[in-house]
Design a protein that fits this description.
The complex is a heterodimer of chains A (about 280) and B (about 220).
Chain A: H1 2-10, E1 26-30, H2 38-51, E2 56-60, H3 68-72, H4 80-84, H5 90-93, E3 94-96, E4 102-104, H6 118-131, E5 137-141, H7 148-155, E6 159-164, H8 168-185, E7 189-197, H9 202-217, E8 227-235, H10 238-246, H11 250-253, H12 258-275
Parallel strand pairs in A: 1-5, 1-6, 2-4, 2-5, 6-7, 7-8
Antiparallel strand pairs in A: 3-4
Helix pairs in contact in A: 2-12
Chain B: H1 2-13, H2 23-40, E1 45-51, H3 54-61, H4 63-80, E2 86-91, E3 94-99, H5 107-119, E4 123-124, E5 130-131, E6 135-141, H6 150-166, E7 172-175, H7 184-191, H8 201-204
Parallel strand pairs in B: 6-7
Antiparallel strand pairs in B: 1-3, 1-6, 2-3, 4-5
Helix pairs in contact in B: 3-4, 4-5
The chains are: A alpha/beta (about 280), B alpha+beta (about 220).
């Protein structure tokens, strides 16, 4: 992790976000630490939003080490890689996922894109511009850590969801990510999704704890500190493991389990707060 | 009277031997820079420099020669820097340079130029005797967006100075990364409770976030 932190620090701050889309349309799901369920949250949130009638596309923005294909058990012939290299159009690369939403998968050839070049920035922007008119929500499933690619992808989103688990390593990395987003991107609001909580209320307490430390250590302009908004606790639930191992969407296979219900509620909350109001 | 006060202020900030900033002044500059970096995220570089084999210069040529070497190196360092930079005598034969707004990509070149300039000096220590001196340099960038502490920053630069020494002296070692560190204090505040077994923070953090935030799932 510290390598990632340092690589991010070395990278120049991303250029200011282009006024791309109505606020609330492009959302980034990021984490800090890998393996906290970021892609799981992206995919199931997309399914939950789709169930509620939203037109959703998930873009696999983890160009280097994409996992969305594994989670969804989808291996399309045409991927984002072909769009980047000009071999295919965006339309050809969009795939329908089982949960009723669309995906743009990175494909295995994307390792060469793990460093952010001006060309990649331009391609990325072009693709997102192309997606905006067609969807209600574009979810960017970013890579773990805070590499320049992750920061760039996040910079394109008007809403940032940080996924963390209650483990110390995950909290530290989430904290470091939030610190960078507050500092480099001057984010005023960051939405928190705490995954694998043991008890109701844990997520809110963790978010409060993070907020306290941020208030104390992260220096922003006076009166403009970063505010964490606790969105959801996804409870620890054996059904999640079942779905993941079967490589199915939790929202489809076990829609009534506690974690799936929490996903539905997360989707509803996003609809009520950021998607409609565009906050 | 004013000139006396000015004179005393000057004295309190300067190292008498070299005319450079003294340690106290250096520390206050460093504190100010930490604050600036925390607010701006600008890259700031701290170099710690040490004259190589200074003891043997003293032993061979005498302490007076040693002083002349210190002064010559100090003059040289002052000429190598920008007006916004601060050179200080940190102690003994150790110097420190604070370089605000120094791009990560140029830090090494700046330090290397200082090293080469000192290496090229012919320092006169007597009517017909000259000595040459070399320096080792360690450098570290301040963590961006974070309020670090002077001791931590100095320690990182000092560790790199130590590495430059152990790799053979007369060289530069710089930590290119402008580290975004999560300090031990921050970590402790984040999850210090976990070590206690019982999450006492559940009670402590009962305060609701600012209005406008949404409530937790299931509540």
């Amino acid at each position: 992790m510290s390598d990632e932190l340092q690589a991010a620090a070395e990278a120049k701050p991303p250029e200011p976000t282009v006024p791309l889309a109505p606020p609330g349309k492009v959302m980034a799901v990021t984490s800090g630490k890998g393996g906290v369920g970021k892609t799981f949250v992206s995919a199931n949130l997309a399914a939950a939003l789709a169930k509620r009638g939203q037109r959703v596309l998930v873009l696999d923005a983890d160009l280097g080490l994409a996992n969305l294909d594994v989670v969804l058990n989808l291996y399309p012939k045409v991927t984002l890689h072909d769009v980047f290299s000009g071999k295919a159009t965006i339309e050809e690369a969009i795939v329908q996922a089982p949960g009723g939403f669309s995906v743009l998968l990175a494909g295995s050839g994307m390792v060469e894109y793990s460093r952010l070049t001006p060309e990649i920035r331009a391609d990325f922007l072009r693709i997102i511009h192309g997606l905006i008119p067609r969807y209600d929500v574009v979810l960017l499933d970013t890579g773990a850590g805070i590499s320049d690619v992750v920061l760039f992808a996040v910079s394109l989103a008007s809403v940032v969801l940080v996924v963390a688990t209650p483990e110390p390593t995950s909290l530290t990395d989430a904290y470091a990510t939030i610190k960078v987003l507050a500092g480099q991107q001057h984010r005023a609001n960051i939405h928190m999704v705490i995954n694998q909580t043991a008890r109701l209320g844990d997520g809110r307490a963790i978010t409060g704890q993070l907020q306290q430390v941020l208030d104390r250590f992260v220096v922003t302009e006076p009166g403009r500190g970063v505010r964490l908004i606790h969105l959801a606790d996804i409870p620890s639930d054996p059904s999640v493991r079942q779905a993941v191992m079967r490589r199915q969407l939790l929202m489809q296979t076990l829609p009534g389990c506690p974690a799936a219900l929490a996903m539905t509620q997360l989707a509803r909350k996003l609809e009520e707060t950021v998607i409609k109001s565009g906050r | 009277m004013q000139s006396v006060i000015d004179g005393l202020c000057e004295l309190s900030l300067k190292d008498p031997m070299t005319g450079l900033a003294n340690r106290r002044h250096f520390l206050s500059v460093l504190e100010r820079e930490i604050d600036g970096v925390a607010r701006s995220g600008e890259p700031a570089l701290l170099l710690m420099l040490d004259i190589d084999h200074f003891k043997s210069i003293n032993d061979t040529h005498g302490h007076l020669a040693g002083d002349q070497v210190l002064q010559a190196v100090a003059r040289c360092l002052s000429r190598c820097i920008r007006p916004m930079d601060t050179v200080a005598r940190y102690g003994g034969e150790e110097f420190a340079v604070v370089l605000p707004n120094c791009l990560v990509s140029v830090g090494e070149a700046v330090a290397e130029r200082i090293r080469m300039t000192v290496e090229s000096l012919m320092i006169s220590v007597g009517p017909s005797s000259h000595v040459k001196a070399t320096i080792s340099i360690g450098g570290a960038y301040a963590p961006a967006w974070v309020r670090s502490t002077a001791p931590l920053w100095i320690e990182r630069a000092d560790n790199l100075l130590y590495r430059a020494k152990s790799e053979g002296r007369n060289r530069v070692c710089i930590d290119h990364q402008q580290a975004i560190a999560v300090s031990a204090e921050e970590k402790n505040l984040l999850f210090g409770h976990l070590a206690l077994g019982e999450p006492a923070w559940l009670e402590r953090v009962a305060v609701e976030p600012a209005s406008g935030s949404v409530s937790g799932v299931g509540e």
